[in-house]
Amino acid sequence: DVQLVESGGGLVQPGGSLRLSCAASGFTFSRYGMSWVRQAPGKGREGVAVIDSDDSTDYADSVKGRFTISRDSAKSMVYLQMNSLKTEDTAVYYCATDPPNYWGQGTQVTVS
Fold it and tell me: Any idea what DSSP says for residue 103?
């Protein structure tokens, strides 16, 4: 079975940093693009960052210059380094394949 398991969320002060991790299993990770998607309270899901199988990346304008997505295909891991966090970054962050056929359970990030 496909599994995506996020970790690394938590409570951080504005201006702080967090690193989210996503462990993938059950599919050929190296062949898939991967993404991070977030959902803030009372809002719809927002694509944050995506990394293709060739390691090309793209970011939402709201996080460009602050967030960095990366992957380790040998470990089937994808990461999201979040710096200079703002209160508006508060959300549940999901790891997903790209296209989003599979999703993790999400990890809460609270900036306060």
Answer: B
Question: Per-residue DSSP letters for 58-83?
Answer: EE-TTTTTTEEEEEETTTTEEEEEE-
Mean pLDDT of the chain: 97
Per residue in 29-78, pLDDT tens? 999 999 999 999 999 999 999 999 999 999 999 999 999 999 999 999 99
Tokens at 86, concatenated: 């703002």
* Alpha carbon distances (Å) from 55 to 30, 40, 43, 70, 84: 10, 27, 29, 8, 23
Query: In sequence order, what are the residues at sequence separation of 6 or more whose Cβ sits closer than 8 angstroms to the Cβ of residue 86?
Result: 14, 111
The predicted pLDDT at position 74 comes to 95
CA–CA distances in Å: residue 96 to residues 25, 56, 60, 110: 12, 16, 15, 20
- E-strand ranges in 8-106 read 10-12, 18-25, 33-39, 45-51, 57-59, 67-72, 77-82, 91-98
